[in-house]
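PROTEIN DESIGN WORKSHEET
SECTION A - STRUCTURE
LENGTH: 540
TOKENS:
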């Protein structure tokens, strides 16, 4: 793959400016950069979903691209997992088209026959690539290695949890038989055993891999190169080695860059002093006047060559006090039981209540119903029996993994507009969520998943509700951004009901109690237990 002099602007924002890079056929490449630098956009360019303004990005002639997107959506959610996986290799459709052509050949003229026979050759070559006679065995091997059971295979796609969606989508892209894998945050929802399988698979994969991930340990185990997208310069650069080696190289480069900039600034200051003295000199001092003109030319050249520092933005203290005082007991859940159609109960007779102002965490392995419980509490699903009761003083703001609270056609600024804040206050608050200057007028549909998550989290806090329900709020965020967002939620004085397996984020918020699913046991907060589930859901 080769990117040459790539230039791209989306809306008013410059993404790439004369960016170039080149990779080899078997490279395992980590694509890194801050949120919004253009990592997911690069995948869209590779897939032909976004067109460069100028420059080019070319693939090998025989490259077959497989994508695991960060936001997993199914075209037909009523398919079972098994039906969906089978369709990942279009063998049935290809054979059906061959049969149609053979039928057409019985009545075609000479010119039509030549065209049809050419298509036959292409389709037969495709079937060889799809390895049609061994395909089902290959799929069964993937299913076995990734520990799919019969219950999961017979589950409808719409019934899957976030972790199960990731697992199924990953199996699908592996079975599709690409030789270039594009993986966008592949470990966001994976449990421990699945993650271990993915790591081993990618290490032995006989093709190219490009992976966007905030899981730096995962990158260190997989990649042999890093493609860095610099949001300040809008250029790209390839670094040999894993992520840890790249970080050391980048830090050294930043130190050297700062030294160069300071030296450039000293030279500019000297030239400015000479030019100033020359302009103030008497008209008869021709030598100084000539020197001044010469130095003025050099000054303009030096200013044009001056390198740009990375921007450091100051964050402003937010007022995130709830607008209304909450109740002493904002939520009571009593004897809750629920199951999906044709499935056993997810949980039975679960009971708990929340105390006003507490930070309450729900944990459990993937697929036990953590997100489902939040949907039941929000009334998006109906329980089989039991009651869910909110106190009349409870104001609710809900953050779902699907980010449905955002209007993608509107700008960032329009999405967070709120009667309790002036425009200036909103701009300051958006700065706390790392949106600065003209960025706030960018359409949400043009944002990366990480940027969308930040907008949604900002909107949640701006509602000034006294009860927040948050479902995996850090899934799309890099570690630095997680820390910034965690500070904001840590200062919130209302009640929080949270699903998260991110230990550092959870501790920033200040969790007091935990609900363990599926058993429904409530315990005091324990980092050891949280880290256990974090490990299980990272490696499964």
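SECTION B - SEQUENCE
RESIDUE ASSIGNMENT:
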């Amino acid at each position: 793959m080769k990117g040459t002099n790539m230039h791209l602007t989306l809306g008013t924002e410059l993404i790439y400016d004369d960016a170039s890079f080149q990779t080899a056929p078997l490279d395992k490449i980590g694509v890194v950069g801050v949120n919004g630098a253009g990592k997911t956009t690069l995948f869209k360019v590779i897939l032909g979903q976004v067109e460069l303004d100028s420059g080019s990005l070319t693939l090998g002639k025989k490259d077959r691209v497989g994508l695991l997107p960060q936001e997993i959506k199914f075209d037909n959610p009523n398919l079972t997992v098994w039906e969906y996986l089978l369709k990942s290799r279009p063998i049935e459709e290809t054979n059906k088209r061959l049969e149609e052509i053979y039928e057409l050949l019985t009545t075609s003229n000479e010119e039509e026959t030549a065209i049809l026979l050419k298509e036959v050759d292409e389709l037969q070559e495709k079937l060889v690539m799809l390895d049609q006679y061994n395909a089902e065995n290959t799929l069964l091997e993937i299913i076995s290695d990734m520990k799919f059971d019969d219950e999961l295979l017979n589950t409808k796609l719409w019934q899957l949890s976030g972790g199960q969606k990731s697992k199924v989508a990953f199996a699908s892209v592996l079975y599709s038989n690409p030789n270039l894998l594009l993986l966008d945050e592949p470990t966001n929802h994976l449990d421990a055993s699945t993650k271990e399988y993915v790591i081993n698979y990618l290490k032995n994969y006989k093709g190219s891999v490009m992976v966007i991930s905030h899981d730096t340990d995962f990158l260190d185990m997989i990649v042999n190169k890093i493609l860095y997208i610099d949001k300040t310069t809008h250029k790209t650069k390839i670094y040999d080695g894993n992520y840890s080696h790249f970080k050391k190289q980048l830090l050294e480069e930043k130190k050297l860059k700062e030294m160069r900039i300071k030296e450039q600034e000293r030279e500019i200051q000297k030239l400015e002093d000479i030019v100033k003295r020359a302009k103030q000199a008497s008209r008869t001092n021709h030598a100084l006047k000539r020197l001044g003109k010469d130095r003025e030319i050099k000054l303009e050249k030096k200013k044009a060559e001056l390198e740009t520092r990375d921007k450091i933005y100051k964050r402003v203290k937010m007022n995130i006090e709830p607008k209304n005082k909450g109740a002493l007991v904002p939520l009571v859940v009593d004897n809750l039981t629920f199951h999906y159609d044709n499935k056993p109960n997810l949980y039975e007779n679960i009971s708990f209540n929340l105390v006003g102002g507490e930070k309450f965490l729900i944990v459990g392995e993937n697929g036990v119903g953590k997100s489902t419980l939040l949907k039941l509490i929000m009334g998006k699903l109906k329980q089989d029996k039991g009651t869910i009761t909110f106190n009349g003083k409870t104001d609710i703001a809900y953050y779902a993994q699907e980010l449905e609270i955002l209007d993608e056609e509107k700008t960032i600024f329009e999405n967070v507009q709120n009667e309790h804040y002036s425009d200036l206050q909103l701009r300051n608050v958006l700065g706390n969520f790392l949106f600065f200057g003209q960025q706030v007028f960018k359409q949400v549909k043009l944002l990366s998943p990480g940027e969308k998550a930040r907008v949604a989290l900002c909107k949640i806090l701006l509602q000034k509700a006294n009860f927040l329900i948050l479902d995996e709020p850090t899934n799309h965020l890099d570690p630095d951004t997680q820390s910034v967002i965690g500070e904001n939620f840590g200062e919130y004085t209302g009640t929080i009901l949270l699903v998260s397996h991110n230990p550092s984020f959870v501790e920033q918020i200040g969790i007091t109690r935990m609900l363990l699913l599926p058993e429904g046991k409530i315990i005091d907060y324990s980092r050891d237990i949280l880290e256990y589930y974090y490990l299980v859901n990272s490696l499964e």
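SECTION C - NOTES
The longest strand covers residues 13-22.
Residues 21 and 121 are 35 Å apart (CA to CA).
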